[in-house]
Amino acid sequence: MTSTTAPETTRSPWDLSRDELAELLSDHPRYRVDQVWNGLYGRGLTPDQITELPAALRAELSEQLVPSLTLDTEQRSSDDTTVKQLWTVEGGSIETVLMHYPKRSTACVSSQAGCAMGCGFCATGQIGYDRNLSVGEILEQIVRARAAAEPRRLSNIVFMGMGEPFANYDRLMIVIDRLLNDFEIGARKITVSTVGLVPQMLRFAEAGLQVGLAVSLHAANDELRTELVPINKRHPIDDLVAAAQLFRERTGRRVSYEWAMIDGVNDRDSDAAELAKVAKRSFAHVNLIPLNPTPGWPTTGTPPKRIRAFASQLEDAGVNVTVRANRGTDIDAACGQLRANQEATPVEIRRR
Ligand code: SF4
Question: What Å distances lie between residue 159 and 194, 314, 350, CA to CA?
Fold first, then answer.
């Protein structure tokens, strides 16, 4: 484990608030602030690429504001609909996944380098925690994804990459504010995924944004969930349900429960029955996701036929359910997997 804060020696151009930029440019005409801000956010340019600025100012800004991401590896799925990028950042590496659908393009963004939550089936959890990302490091992923998506429009952002977004709450909220106001991405096109940090879920609900909230549930009884998602010991399922209910009250929106289908672990009839009860109490939608295999996890995803039967059981119980397509299995597209394929050590899980 290294430091818990972003490096302070250099700042990404996207780290600065508009007020901080104005202060940095206080010796220049005021319209320079708009020029730089529009270059950074409207066109995704680094300061040296904003050619309407005088050369001396470009040089001055480029010395102080240095992009934080260096591309290490880029993989494309065989059908070219999924692009995975592994970036080197100070003291670690992070991943961004860009997914193209017929009517939208979505970037799945990292909020931390590594993750401290230790979910055993997750490639990032197997790596461990490095540090929180800065605002600029998170936004740069989106700037780069937007450029990589062209000529398509990057329309949706999901905070489901490496890390637990709510463990980096204050920076996450700044990033969301910039997405809404400077990238012009609508709140309903943004989703935050949490493993279930209840205090932050409650704060997020009280913020009243129309941003989507997805909770990685994966088990609907505390014993199994604590085994799969260790943070459940601190924030058990009843507390999660209460937070989901508050989110519904404050925003009018349902949370989604994410459920990675793990063969022989959480895909039995009894699991579906427990999930149906929890989902209904929470007014939640359920997303079933075939588990992407990871190098450090000895189990495999549930076969498609069993997933369909599980989904039918939920529907019969009155739960809204979607079976998600598994993107990019040919390019290590599960969260943290590109990096984990080099680093993970195997863990053990008991099959039931
Ligand atoms: S599933 Fe999410 S919270 Fe759990 S270890 Fe992976 S990145 Fe962290």
Answer: 9, 26, 29
